[in-house]
Design a protein that fits this description.
alpha/beta; Rossmann fold; Guanylate Kinase phosphate binding domain; 5-stranded parallel beta sheet; 4-stranded mixed beta sheet; 8 helices; 9 strands; globular; binds adenosine-5'-diphosphate; binds guanosine-5'-monophosphate
């Protein structure tokens, strides 16, 4: 009897403002047994963001100390701030067979791919155009103009990486894009590479 429960990683990237957090909220309504990887950042909290829920907000010194101590699976400088994924909670969640969800940038994706490729399913998400992205960033009303300009400039570089990902979603109609992401979140848990070859065959024989 095959009863394996395997941890898997669902990694999302895409320009800031494309709708990753919004889409994830829809995914959470439909899946269970997941763990969202809370990143550590030196960015200041936005209004409404809570330390330990949205991010772990730390000083630059704390972040640099954490790098030295090997605290991160990956880290990167994005839009002038540091962001990193802590290793320990991820290892724990994977060992418990959870679906671990990352919302990280294209640099982080490259590193994670090199370190734990077998478990990872990656999705690049974007808006139908740069203009729509700008509208979303402005209507979200969480960032100053110079921050928005920086994010738009960065988006032009990030989009060039989309073919490095397993899947590509254009978040135009929220309902359609949510359905696509939910489908991926379900299917990424049954990737053949997640199963232990020898153990599975042995169990199957018996
Ligand atoms: P990200 O997490 O990628 O930075 P958000 O989820 O914060 O992006 O979304 C940015 C803004 O766009 C939010 O105001 C959100 O409500 C809005 N938004 C997200 N998806 C859509 C969509 N499909 N259509 C219209 N607006 C959207
Ligand atoms: P925001 O400041 O809008 O929350 O995030 C800005 C960017 O940083 C997004 O592209 C997001 O995916 C990325 N990001 C968030 N956490 C991490 C992380 O831990 N590592 C990396 N490499 N990027 C991250």
């Amino acid at each position: 009897m095959i009863e394996e429960k395997n941890g898997a990683v669902l990694l999302l990237s895409g320009p800031s403002g494309c709708g990753k957090s919004t889409l994830l909220k829809e995914v959470y309504k439909e899946i269970s047994d997941y763990y969202f990887s809370i990143s550590t950042t030196t960015r200041a909290p936005r209004e409404g963001e809570v330390d330990g829920i949205d991010y772990f907000f730390v000083s630059k010194k704390e972040f640099l100390d954490d790098i030295k101590e090997g605290f991160f699976l990956e880290w990167a400088e994005v839009h002038g701030n540091y962001y990193g994924t802590s290793l320990k909670p991820i290892k724990k969640a994977l060992a418990l067979g959870k679906l671990v969800i990352f919302d990280i940038d294209v640099q982080g994706h490259e590193i994670v791919r090199k370190k734990i490729s077998r478990q990872v399913t990656s999705v690049f998400i974007t808006t139908p155009s740069l203009e729509v992205l700008e509208n979303r960033l402005r209507s979200r009303n969480t960032d100053e103009n110079d921050v928005i300009e920086k994010r738009l400039k960065n988006a032009k570089t990030e989009i060039k990486y989309f073919q490095k990902y397993d899947y590509f979603i254009v978040n135009d109609d929220l309902q359609i894009a949510s359905k696509q992401l939910i489908a991926i979140a379900n299917v990424c848990r049954i990737k053949a590479a997640l199963f232990d070859n020898d153990k599975l065959i042995k169990d199957w024989y018996n």
